[in-house]
Amino acid sequence: MVKDLFDRIQKNKGPLGKWASQAEGYYVFPKLEGKLGPHMKFQGKDVLNWSLNDYLGLATHPEVLKADADAAAEYGAAYPMGARMMSGHTDYHEQLQRELAQFVSKEAAYLLNFGYQGMVSIIDALVTKNDVIVYDVDSHACIIDGVRLHMGKRFTYQHNDVESLEKNLERAVKIANEQNGGILVITEGVFGMRGQQGKLREIVALKEKYNFRLLVDDAHGFGTLGKTGAGAGEEQGCQDDIDVYFSTFAKSMAGIGAFVAGDNDLISFLQYNLRSQMFAKSLPMIYTLGGLKRLELLRNHPELKEKLWANVNKIQNGLREKGFNIGDTNTCVTPVYLEGSIPEAMVMVNDLRENYGIFLSIVVYPVIPKGLILLRVIPTASHTFEDIDETLTAFEAIRTKLQDGTYKKMAESISETSEA
Q: In what residue span(s) does the Aminotransferase class I/classII large domain sit (predicted)?
């Protein structure tokens, strides 16, 4: 007898879903309220917010708010109504594409409705079953899901390990030669959890030997790295060697949408073969005109990035000076590693939010090894030095409680109460 497809849903809610009864509404799916920015409300209390990717503070910039409001007043939320190919194409979409391409030093660019679906579709369009994909094992979920669609061979290399990459490229070359295929290497410009830049310079140095094409997801690098803010490739002096450059608007651009950039032939091909764009509604005018204003500010106001990095340097230097382990981050993403269990982590986050007014993201096993707790801090240009000092003081206090067993005792007490 065929079993009910939904039996699995009742028995296994997934690695995160199994915690829903304890975590939902507080640790996951929390509801922040108030004006977007460093100071918001959580469950009726004022909190200092370190969980927004609004790196340059553009989300509430007066010129951005006006551009968004003017676009909404003139066009509403629906225009253009239809897919780009059929009825959703405008001069403004083309203008934003041209300006984005110029900004990241590529011949052309193409707008995408969302970063996640865009990346999945880019990977799907670029490779056939005869091609081989080699990608960093710590790649973002959108890359992993895009690779899952691939009907051919794929290999992961150890995170940011060029020696491991080369070993896998050797395997890829043999298969590609046998199948008359090509090789696509995928990495991130900035790894959003650990804060490391992808080793782009070292990767592109292998291109001549192994004849691969390189796709870089630079979601966290665009707007934050490089002399002009053009990203990790500009920062490392190898932007020209990135064949497919991708970024989302959901970070530095503080909006919705994304883009892919490369040479004219590549973008022309993607324009006619990206299924996620061919069969989906065009990016609404609010985000298109809003994107033009955001890019204008990013280009013409370097002080935004300078303020961001002043905050990044202050909080990262402060954490290091106080003996905190922040790994080897060399970007704005600031991970704080502590030792402890998942129950201890939950008690600690509750203490941070309820008693210290600090709101941030927490990461535990299986994303990171057992016994570690990662507090991910995202500095922005909107934070102040006073915010940073307050946070450093709070971190010292919670570390003491974690090390002296306070959180462990509290977690055990809660467990005993819930069992009773």
A: 45-394
